Amino acid sequence: MNKFAELNSASAAQLFADYCRAQGLNVSAVVQQADFAELYADSAQLPQIEAEFSRFMQQPSHPRYQAAAWQLSQPATLASAPLTKPDLGKLWQQAPLTLLLLVLCLLVYGWQQLDWRASSAALQLTEPAQLWRWFTPVLLHFSLTHLVFNLAWWFYLGRQLEQRLGAALLINITLSAALVSNAAQYVVVGPNFGGMSGVVYALLGYCWLAGQLNPRQQLNISNGLAGFMLLWLLLGFMDLLWVSMANWAHLGGLVTGLLWAWLLRHRPGRELS
Questions:
Q1: Residue 77 above 50 pLDDT?
Q2: 250 noted as active-site residue
Q3: Is the pLDDT of residue 255 over 70?
Q4: Is the pLDDT of residue 219 over 60?
Q5: Where do the domains of the chain lie?
């Protein structure tokens, strides 16, 4: 990636980078502060990107740029892509830890259906002196909806983070988020809880704040999506939802993810092959 421009507006730089990515051009905005940002581009695409940049500078308020940024923030745009059979070999090569934990949760859920009491007795945080129990509640899920929701988010966020930052960092974030979220829920409420949502909130918080502090990692969560998950968290604390929520686990995970993103705010991400 080659630096090709500087702008005195971080929001304008991010808007142009979003537009270019929507056009299939590899552009990253590195925000130094609110009034200074740098733009980097793939050297092979540089002539086309510079032409687009010249057009952007002439009409920065053109609706095409806002439309592209909005499009990138919408998960529904994925529906227009053709469905292809997943390449499990390639997925394993790219994100083995993400797949391994996903499969482990599926196996534990199968065990829960066969022997609910034994699985809960083995994995819930009922014996704090047994140190593994501070981590194992993330493997428990109490309904198929609970399982699918958490694993979908884990796969979406964990795979991105593992590809960009590596399996070692993903496992550190996952274990620390599991420990903090489980401890928060246990101390405030008690041992009768489970699920990976605390870890999911940690990954969500990490990806959102990293997108603000360090665009080089290319882990972007839209403000709208982050706002929705924060609203979900608040509704849980207000007891306005139709399901029982491990609210303190969610909050503990979110804080853990935000802290990791701040600590790693200068770390570059990997380029995907």
A1: no
A2: yes
A3: yes
A4: yes
A5: 2-80, 88-263
Average pLDDT rounded to a whole number, residues 148-177: 94
* pLDDT of residue 124 exceeding 90: yes
Determine the topology of domain 2-80 in CATH: Alpha-Beta Plaits (3.30.70)
Residue 194 DSSP one-character state: -
Compute the chain's Rg from CA coordinates.
Answer: 21
pLDDT at 272 over 50: yes
Query: Which one, of 185, 189, 180, 227, lies nearest residue 208 by Cα?
Result: 227
Tokens 């979003």 sit on residue: 18
Would residue 73 show up in a list of annotated catalytic residues for this protein?
no
Catalytic residue among 141, 197, 222, 266: 197
Q: 66 is written with which tokens?
A: 């806002």
Distance between CA atoms of residues 269 and 220, nearest Å: 12
Q: Residue 104: which of 12, 10, 178 has the closest Cα?
A: 178
Q: What's the topology of domain 88-263?
A: Rhomboid-like fold (1.20.1540)
The single residue of 28, 250, 266, 273 carrying the catalytic annotation is 250
What are the backbone angles phi and psi of residue 2, rounded to the nearest 5°?
-115, 135
**Mean pLDDT along residues 43-49:** 86
Encoded tokens for 160: 């991105």
What is the distance, to the nearest Å, from the Cα of residue 51 to the centroid of all Cα atoms in its chain? 33
Could you tell me if 49 and 20 are in contact, meaning their C-beta atoms sit under 8 angstroms apart? Answer: yes
pLDDT of 71 reads: 53
For the entire predicted model, the pTM comes to: 0.66
